[in-house]
Amino acid sequence: MAERKPIASAPKDGSKVTIMWTDGDGVVNESVGQYRDGGWWVYTDSNTQKKVDPTSWRPASGDDDEQQ
């Protein structure tokens, strides 16, 4: 698994990455998200998107540089 990086270094070109964010109840979540429209967005279910304030990121699953 790729190491987490500061969110400031995440790509803002619309590509999908795995981000870590905290919800309103203080629960830490890890979701695939993307930067667009001036912020980070994740799907909370198959039809609902939410703008979040992530703290870190790593390449989305399948995009890791680790090869075996």
With helices defined by DSSP (H or I, 4 residues minimum), what is the helix count?
Answer: 0
Q: Describe the biggest sheet?
A: 6 strands, antiparallel
Multimeric state: single chain
What is the H/E string?
EEEEEE
| Number of spatially distinct domains | 1
- Which consecutive residue ranges, at least 5 long each, have pLDDT under 50? 64-68
Outline, from the CA principal axes? globular
Radius of gyration, taken over Cα atoms and rounded to an integer in Å = 12 Å
Strand content: over 45%
Considering DSSP H and I runs of 4 or more, what fraction of the residues is helical? under 10%
Strand element count? 6
For the record, give the distance between the C-alpha atoms at the N and C termini, rounded to a whole number: 12 Å
Strand order in space, largest sheet: 1-6-2-3-4-5
Structure description:
The protein has one domain (5-59). It has no helices and 6 strands. The radius of gyration is 12 Å and the shape is globular. With 68 residues, it is an all-beta fold. It has strands at residues 5-6, 16-22, 28-36, 39-43, 49-52, 56-59. Residues 64-68 have low confidence and may be disordered. Strands 1-6-2-3-4-5 form a 6-stranded antiparallel sheet, with no helix packed on it.
